[in-house]
Amino acid sequence: MIGSIRGRVIRKRASEVLIETNGVGYEVHVAINCELPREGNDAFLYIYTYVREGSLQLYGFMREEERLLFSRLLGVSGIGPRIALATLSGLSVERFAAAIEGEDVAVLSRLPGIGKKTAQRLILELKGKLPSIVAAKDSEYEDALSALLTLGYKKPDIITTLDTLKKKDIQDIETLIREALKYLSEGTGN
C-alpha cells in the first residue's frame, strides 16, 4: 500500500495531479482546494490507496488529518471516494469535525452529494469518533463565529468566510476576526 508520495508535479488539474517519482508518474485524485506547488516543482502528499473491483486509485492530501478523515468517511454507509473528496473540498477537517460533534445537519447537507438523511447518518456514525482530528484551533473558530454573529452577520456567510480564512493559517483570534470583518464587508456578509 502506498502511504505517501514525494515527487515532481508534472500536470495539475482541478481534482487530480500527476506526480513523477523515480521515473514513474502517479495520477492522484485531490480535493479541489488542495494547494499544490506549480508544475515542475516538488510536492509531498499523504496517500490513501483505494482498491475496488480490480481498480486501484490514489487519493492525495496535504495533511495527515485530511487522509484520516477521508478514510473515516469511506467507512460510512453510502459514502464513496467521490463524495468523501467533495466533502474535503467543501469544508476544512476542523470545521467538518465541529459540524459532526455539534450535530449541524444544515452545514453537512450543503456539501455536494450529501442530503439531510446522509448528513444525519454521518453524524450518527462519526460522532465521538473524530476527537483526534478536532484541533485546538476549533475553539478559536467558534469564538470568531460567535463574535461575528453578535455583530449581526449571517451564519452561512460567516462559516464560508472562516473556512476560507482557515487556509491562511491565522495564528490568533484577533487577526482571524479582523480578516473576517474585511472579507465580510467586501460584500459576502450584511
Automatic annotation (TrEMBL):
HAMAP family, alphabetized: DNA_HJ_migration_RuvA
Location of the protein in the cell: Cytoplasm
Coiled coil (residue ranges): none
Tagged with keyword Transmembrane: no
Gene Ontology cellular-component annotations: cytoplasm; Holliday junction helicase complex; Holliday junction resolvase complex
Keyword terms: Cytoplasm, DNA damage, DNA recombination, DNA repair, DNA-binding, Hydrolase
Database matches in Pfam families: HHH_5 (PF14520), RuvA_C (PF07499), RuvA_N (PF01330)
Family: Belongs to the RuvA family.
Function field: The RuvA-RuvB-RuvC complex processes Holliday junction (HJ) DNA during genetic recombination and DNA repair, while the RuvA-RuvB complex plays an important role in the rescue of blocked DNA replication forks via replication fork reversal (RFR). RuvA specifically binds to HJ cruciform DNA, conferring on it an open structure. The RuvB hexamer acts as an ATP-dependent pump, pulling dsDNA into and through the RuvAB complex. HJ branch migration allows RuvC to scan DNA until it finds its consensus sequence, where it cleaves and resolves the cruciform DNA.
Primary gene name: ruvA
Comment on protein domains: Has three domains with a flexible linker between the domains II and III and assumes an 'L' shape. Domain III is highly mobile and contacts RuvB.
Family matches, as InterPro entries: DNA_helicase_Holl-junc_RuvA_I, Hlx-hairpin-Hlx_DNA-bd_motif, NA-bd_OB-fold, RuvA, RuvA_2-like, RuvA_C, RuvA_C_sf
Keyword flag DNA repair: yes
Domain Helix-hairpin-helix DNA-binding motif class, chain residue ranges per copy: 71-90, 106-125
Entry protein name: Holliday junction branch migration complex subunit RuvA
Stretches for region Domain III: 139-190
GO molecular function: ATP binding; four-way junction DNA binding; four-way junction helicase activity; hydrolase activity
GO biological processes: DNA recombination; DNA repair
Major subcellular site: cytoplasm
Subunit structure and binding partners: Homotetramer. Forms an RuvA(8)-RuvB(12)-Holliday junction (HJ) complex. HJ DNA is sandwiched between 2 RuvA tetramers; dsDNA enters through RuvA and exits via RuvB. An RuvB hexamer assembles on each DNA strand where it exits the tetramer. Each RuvB hexamer is contacted by two RuvA subunits (via domain III) on 2 adjacent RuvB subunits; this complex drives branch migration. In the full resolvosome a probable DNA-RuvA(4)-RuvB(12)-RuvC(2) complex forms which resolves the HJ.
SMART domains: HhH1
Cross-referenced CDD domains: UBA_RuvA_C
